[in-house]
## 1
Amino acid sequence: MSRTPDVILYTDGACSGNPGPGGWAVILKHPATNTVKKLSGGEADTTNNRMEMSAVIKGLQALRGEKPLRVHLVSDSEYVIKGLTEWLTGWIKNNWRRGKKAGAPPVKNLDLWQTLHALSQEHIMSYEYVRGHTGHPENEECDRMAVAAIESVRSRT
């Protein structure tokens, strides 16, 4: 990335069982001001991929009214990173289907992909994949927050 981002968006999602109760977490860092905002939440019955996507969506939604920004997304989800950087264009071209042929199955998690696509168009995005559970400080913190969100969901049910 050639310029310092306005915001670095660290995200993670977790699920206990797949499907099962899940949690998502976001750390938003503004390098110019050194401010940090943390968000988390969860759902009672979801999947890991949905929580990974929800984290990015919640992070981008928190930036509403501050656009367009240079946003650098850091995620340990290959599904999210590859979806946004490699697969999305083809899905849109194929009317949100996973192939060109008639009758090709629709994209999984279509509701979230459409929301994520719309939100990502509001900013100048760059992407970074980090391997999970390897000591990356913000990724580890997001993981702890997402797991805590699962426990919070469990305590409400």
## 2
Amino acid sequence: MKFHKVLAKYYHKWFRDCHDSAVYCKEKGDLVEAEKYLRDAERYLNVILDNFEAIEFFSVGSNAYLSEESLPPEFRGY
């Protein structure tokens, strides 16, 4: 899964939603669906861990929509 700056504010929510869905499916006995949600949660977690500082930056206000030239150097190229 590739990180997209305009989606930055959603990655934490999507991770939590997948985790919660996996727990719910497991409680209901649907282990196949629970595993699917856990794989998705792992993919989101990897994006979060690999891009943590960028997610924090691009989640604030309209930072995700700033022009490349106005971004701090460490966040250019996303």
## 3
Amino acid sequence: MIYKQLQEPTRNEQIAVSTTSKVVSEARNQLNERKVIVLRNTSDNDADIITINLGFNEATSNNGIVLKRNEAFTDSSETGYKAYQGAITGICATANGKLSIFER
């Protein structure tokens, strides 16, 4: 009998973020809980400031978690704490934002 190794789904990608709020990570449910998420502003220019919003509202510039170029936000589950499970939105001060995402 051959057993295949089960691998937990992970997400490693870079997405474009512009001046319109967009969902950068969908809400999770109990069957597919988020264990860790890292969001890093990997934009090319200092003016490409990305704002992240956790919750039901759309992201608005400079109102939430503000990430300047190369800054990151991390949330992870630990004993007694569960990482944020809701939708995460983002918006950039310019049309040229880049957001790198690691999630599992």
## 4
Amino acid sequence: MSGIRGANTRPELAIRRALHRRGFRYRLHSPGVPGKPDLVFPARRAVVFVHGCFWHGHDCRFFRLPATRSDFWKEKIARNRARDAEVRALLTASGWRQMVIWECALRGRGAGAVEEVTGRVAAWLDSDSPFAELRGP
């Protein structure tokens, strides 16, 4: 468990690199923004979260509840989801636009997945849409 990261994960780094190549500049894990989002675009009043499917209880093929200590994991994931909802409400009340990129949007779809997802993120950043979510197939 000590090797599991909360920040600078592989999916997050891949998105950061691709967005930087496209010319986007951002802040990382800004403590002044509710939930300390993975990427903060202050001028666009937008934030991006890169969520791991297991840790946030996503309903995809990458989430499977462990057989051992299942009560602990149910509670843990339920708390994570409740915190996500609370952060979403705080950000909306503060006027921040939000995007959630799920790990499954990047995994298992070949080498072009990161560029495709990054293109969709770039399009969303240039739009006025208040919320977006990118999920796997």
